UniProtKB/TrEMBL annotation:
Organism domain of life: Eukaryota
InterPro entries found in the cross-reference section: Dimeric_xanthone_biosynth
PANTHER family linked: EXPRESSED PROTEIN, HEMERYTHRIN-LIKE DOMAIN-CONTAINING PROTEIN
Protein name: Hemerythrin-like domain-containing protein
UniProt lineage: Eukaryota, Fungi, Dikarya, Ascomycota, Pezizomycotina
């Protein structure tokens, strides 16, 4: 059985976002929706952090698989935010993620040309906007709970659930979906999301 994971690799430099359900103990449709979005965002943030932290120290023999790993992350982010761009939240950082994806596509053809420093510089170029966006979205959705907006009988919960599934599954089942599942943390927030 594997030992404990050093969470610094996945919980920094961008801090994870706490779920509104954990923070408020509320269970209404918007608090629940924002909490589920936070779990998805945290998986994406863990991916960012792990790529950012590991990129500079990779041995050449690990370049090709790492490029595939980072490419799955960019596909997940682009797919997730393509849906949001048209439906919910415009995302100013996406051009930086696309630039990162282009760099990874180039280095995938020639893994020896991969540079961890170059990849980190590309990530640094969008990191602040990315962090702000991924944290602000949760607060925006959760705030609807206190506004009394929405009617659970009108289908907002079902529509949100369907949108969430589409935003993830359109990116790919064999790489992106697996990436997402592997970046969920069953111990997060005192194990509240373990099941």
């Amino acid at each position: 059985m594997p030992g404990p994971v050093d969470k610094l690799w996945v919980e920094s430099p961008i801090p994870l976002v706490h779920t509104p359900q954990y923070e408020t103990k509320r269970n209404d449709i918007f608090t629940t929706g924002a909490s589920h979005m936070a779990l998805l965002h945290n998986a994406i943030l863990r991916g960012f952090n792990s790529i950012y932290n590991q990129a500079p120290s990779l041995p050449r023999t690990h370049h090709a698989p790492f490029i595939g790993y980072a490419t799955a992350w960019t596909a997940l982010v682009i797919s997730h935010h393509d849906a949001e761009e048209s439906d919910l939240f415009p995302a100013a950082f996406v051009a930086g993620v696309v630039d990162m994806a282009d760099y990874l596509a180039t280095t995938a053809r020639y893994p020896a040309s991969f540079s961890g420093a170059t990849l980190r510089a590309k990530m640094d170029a969008f990191r602040a906007l990315f962090q702000e966006h991924f944290h602000a979205e949760i607060a925006t959705i959760a705030a609807l709970s206190t506004e009394g907006a929405g009617d659970p009988e009108a289908g907002e919960g079902r529509a949100s659930e369907q949108w969430g599934k589409r935003s993830v599954t359109r990116a790919g089942w064999t790489d992106v979906f697996v990436f997402l599942v592997l970046h969920m943390d069953r111990e997060w927030e005192e194990g509240m999301w373990g099941n």
